[in-house]
UniProtKB/TrEMBL annotation:
Keywords: Membrane, Transmembrane, Transmembrane helix. InterPro entries: Fam133 (IPR026766). Belongs to the FAM133 family. The chain crosses the membrane at residues 105-123. Residues 17-36, 78-103 are annotated as: Disordered. This is Family with sequence similarity 133 member B. It comes from Serinus canaria. The keyword Membrane applies. Residues 91-103 have a biased composition (Basic residues).
């Protein structure tokens, strides 16, 4: 019962079927066409290579120039930032010093107040 009646069919050899159909229609250029295509002479190939080298040299010079300009721009920006940082860092240092001074002063006053309170209590 495993196979149904519709699935009973003879094996068809694909190679024999292809031969029966005959040669395939020509769909594109053949190998012979590729081999017979016009090709440049050795001199023309050398000329083309020289042109490519010149083009790439010009491109390399252009890129180098752009890199130099970019480096200069970065340097300017860096200097501007560093200049700004120095002044801001000096301001920060001043603020820190002021805080230290104010802390010292407040500590001294608190100490004096505490000792004065102790003296006051001692007197009473």
């Amino acid at each position: 019962e495993g196979k149904r009646e519709s699935e009973h069919c003879a094996y068809m050899n694909p190679i024999a079927m292809a031969r029966a159909r005959g040669p395939a229609p020509n769909s594109g250029p053949t190998i012979q066409d590729y081999l017979n295509r016009p090709r440049p002479t050795w001199e023309e190939v050398k000329e083309q290579l020289e042109k490519k080298k010149k083009g790439s040299r010009a491109l390399a010079e252009f890129e180098e120039k752009m890199n130099e300009n970019w480096r200069k721009e970065l340097e300017k920006h860096r200097e501007k930032l560093l200049g700004g940082n120095e002044s801001s860092s000096k301001k920060k240092e001043k603020k820190k010093k002021e805080k230290k001074k104010s802390n010292r002063v407040s500590k001294i006053f608190s100490f004096l107040n505490f000792s004065a309170l102790g003296l006051f209590l001692f007197v009473i």
